[in-house]
Specification:
By secondary structure, this protein is α/β, with parallel strands linked by helices. The protein contains 11 helices and 15 strands. The longest helix has 16 residues. The model has no long low-confidence stretch (mean pLDDT about 95).
Length: about 325
């Protein structure tokens, strides 16, 4: 097998395409022949030693992938050789093969492509947990999605629409806004040229959004929160822009608003039955055509450094997927 090996997490340049022995799965594990692996923002942070999870060295990055079960370890009964699966295990995806915990593998129904499956779990699980569980979104409410053309942003638009909400998508270019409209957004804001607060006020008749979905952080957090509706819920999803904002608590008091943390990874570990039910619903929505990952492009696995560079340029719309 071959994989992109990180021996020193100093950045993408430290990754090397390396031939390694093909491992044998132990009890509770499976060997997966990887067909596709998506590139997520944590995959960049982890090779820069900036992510909260710091795997022992050396490691193979690539948190999310899909492929075919090539071998099963002792005690694995719900998966079999030749079965198509998707997995989000944190590492291991950027190669031709990997060992994965069987418990983390999602069996794929017929018709679920490897490319879509590799771009599915993280963004849809995060967005469903955020909007349905944490925000308790109701039909008819208005959702503002920041960073709306990214992976979790596009998933949030689709899930909010599937739940009957009105969606305002905010992104950094007219091209990204057009993409958001094409997947269901009711209105858009180009915050590179529009004043965010003025645009929100105009699009909500001064009421503000009931739910704000923020995977970006940075400079737009405070103006967005100042615009939230009475009893609004501000979802803290991530900080893709880099800086972690500090919000004045008096704003929450004045709006009767909630600042709600979203940590799907821990939710999945702490509440596995609820997470499994959620993933079942998401797979059903995919089969019904209610949700479908937006794929920016696919690239050969050997071109991973170029894919990292494209993601770092902030030009990605939806998800980047590497294929073998």
């Amino acid at each position: 097998m071959h994989a992109w090996l990180c021996t020193n997490p100093t950045g993408v340049d430290a990754l090397a395409w390396t031939e390694l022995p093909t491992p044998t799965p132990k009890a509770g594990e499976v060997l997966i022949e990887i067909k596709a692996a998506s590139l997520n923002f944590p995959d960049l942070l982890i090779v820069q030693n900036k992510y909260q999870m710091k795997p022992p060295l050396p490691f193979v990055p690539g948190s999310e992938y899909a492929g075919v079960v090539a071998a099963v370890g002792e005690g694995v009964t719900h998966l079999k050789v030749g079965q198509n699966v998707a997995c989000l295990s944190g590492t291991g995806g950027f190669g031709t093969h990997t060992i994965a915990p069987a418990a983390l593998c999602m069996p794929l129904p017929d018709g679920f492509s490897h490319v879509d499956a590799a771009a599915f779990i993280m963004i849809y699980a995060t967005s469903h947990h955020a909007l349905v569980d944490r925000a308790q979104l109701k039909a008819g409410e208005t959702v503002l999605v920041l960073g709306a053309a990214g992976g979790v942003g596009t998933a949030a638009i689709q899930i909010a629409k599937a739940m009957g909400a009105r969606v305002i998508a905010a992104a950094s270019s007219d091209e990204k806004c057009a993409l958001c409209t094409s997947i269901g957004a009711d209105a858009t804001i180009n915050y590179s040229k529009d004043n965010l607060r003025d645009a929100i006020k105009a699009l909500t008749d001064g009421k503000g959004p009931d739910v704000i979905y923020d995977p970006v952080g940075g400079d737009f957090a405070e103006p967005a929160f100042r615009s939230i509706a009475w009893r609004g819920r501000y979802l803290v999803v991530g900080f893709a822009s880099g800086p972690i904002p500090a919000l004045p608590f008096n704003l929450a008091l004045l709006k009767g608003a909630s600042i709600v943390g979203v940590f799907w990874g821990d939710f999945a570990k702490r509440e596995p039955k609820a997470n499994a039910a959620m993933m079942g619903e998401l797979a059903q929505w995919y089969a019904q055509g209610k949700i479908k990952p937006v794929i920016d492009r696919t690239m050969p696995m050997a071109e991973l450094p170029a894919a990292y560079a494209h993601m770092g340029s902030r030009g990605v719309m939806g998800k980047l997927v590497m294929v073998n």
